[in-house]
Write a structure and sequence with these properties.
- The structure is a single chain.
- This protein is an alpha+beta fold and 319 residues long.
- The protein folds into 2 domains: 61-165; 179-313, Glucose Permease (Domain IIA), CATH 2.70.70.
- Helices cover 41% and strands 23% of the residues.
- Strands 3, 6, 7, 8, 9, 10, 11, 12, 13 and 14 form a 10-stranded antiparallel beta sheet that branches.
- α2 (54-98) runs parallel beside α4 (126-165).
- The termini are far apart.
- The structure holds zinc ion.
- The site of zinc ion (ZN) has 7 residues, from β6.
């Protein structure tokens, strides 16, 4: 049962029940609803203005994480670029210098970088586009560097073959060497008795001491000659040939491939010779050159200077 409300009547000194007409009641209800609605709308506006929606908060957090991860990625791209720059620098200023090759210029290193720029134009977000362009440039630089390293590898293989072919070691070991006659050029022949060029060096050593091929090559001749006795003639390629004379015997034959340091025969006194020794010659494009100039790779500076000094004092040869 609805609770009655009363009002005090001063004239009758009684409480009279308050009777509310349906119209007034309806008006009160309407007022209540309007105020409630207004308060509700105001509250909603305030909440929306001051407190982001739950989904929005998640998105904002996610966005922050993406930004942080993008920065890590971008820094990583920067570090990779620095490492590649160091490799390019080494390639240009060390490897290419050693191998007598010109460094790559900037236009060669950046070839094709601009051509693919359009690929990034379809990317909506500038930060992603920047990273994409940077990665694309890195890829192009890596392609160029890979080609360059391949070229260096091929050049190195060629050079190694050439270096291995150079007559760069002594044909007689120092442990067997008694004396080195470095007289190169005109001199009075000890047996023939007239002046003629001495086109090589004479290594005095006991009969039977091993004689080594001074560089990789193939044997052109291995035979007896009246002047050089038992001799071996090796073609090293690249215009270089060596000749070894007065052997007691040789152990290679024409057409045979030889390696630097391989024993090809033994010291002797055959042909026009005044004692056991090896007569050793180097020819470059058919011209006799002083073999001593090819020994640098085998000798320390002091040893080389000593050889030059001995050579300047030599007045005789043994053949
Ligand atoms: Zn000689």
């Amino acid at each position: 049962m609805a609770r009655m409300r009363y009002t005090y009547n001063e004239q009758t000194c009684k409480y009279d029940p308050i009777v509310v007409s349906p119209k007034a009641a309806a008006r009160h209800v309407l007022h209540f609803l309007i105020i409630s609605f207004c308060l509700g709308v105001a509250g909603l506006v305030y909440f929306n203005a001051n407190y982001p929606h739950l989904d929005e908060t998640l998105l904002a957090d996610h966005n922050q994480e993406l930004k942080a991860e993008w920065q890590v990625l971008y820094k990583q791209l920067g570090r990779t670029s620095d490492q590649l720059s160091a490799l390019e620098h080494n390639d240009d200023h060390n490897y290419r210098v050693i191998l007598d090759l010109e460094p790559l210029d900037l236009t060669q290193r950046e070839a094709g970088v601009g051509g693919r720029a359009k690929a990034s134009e379809s990317i909506l977000y500038p930060v992603i586009r920047i990273a994409y362009d940077k990665a694309e440039k890195l890829k192009n630089r890596l392609d160029i560097e890979a080609q360059s390293l391949n070229q260096l590898k091929e050049e190195l293989e060629k050079k190694e073959k050439m270096w291995a072919s150079r007559p760069a070691i002594q044909p007689v070991s120092n442990k067997d060497l008694k004396q080195l006659h470095t007289l190169f050029g005109l001199r009075l022949h000890p047996l023939l008795g007239y002046v003629r060029p001495h086109n090589g060096l004479d290594f005095t050593a006991p009969t039977g001491a091993p004689i080594y091929a001074t560089g990789d090559g193939s044997v052109n001749l291995a035979q007896y000659s009246e002047t050089l006795g038992n001799m071996v003639f090796i073609d090293h390629g690249y215009g270089l040939q060596t000749r070894y004379g007065h052997m007691t015997r040789f152990i290679v034959s024409a057409g045979e491939k030889v390696k630097r340091g391989q024993v090809i025969g033994y010291v002797g006194n055959t042909g026009t010779s005044v004692g056991p020794h090896l007569h050793y010659e180097v020819l470059y494009h058919g011209t006799y050159v002083n073999p001593i100039n090819f020994f640098q790779r085998d000798l320390k500076n002091q040893e080389y200077e000593k050889l030059i000094e001995i050579g300047s004092q030599s007045v005789t040869s043994l053949d």
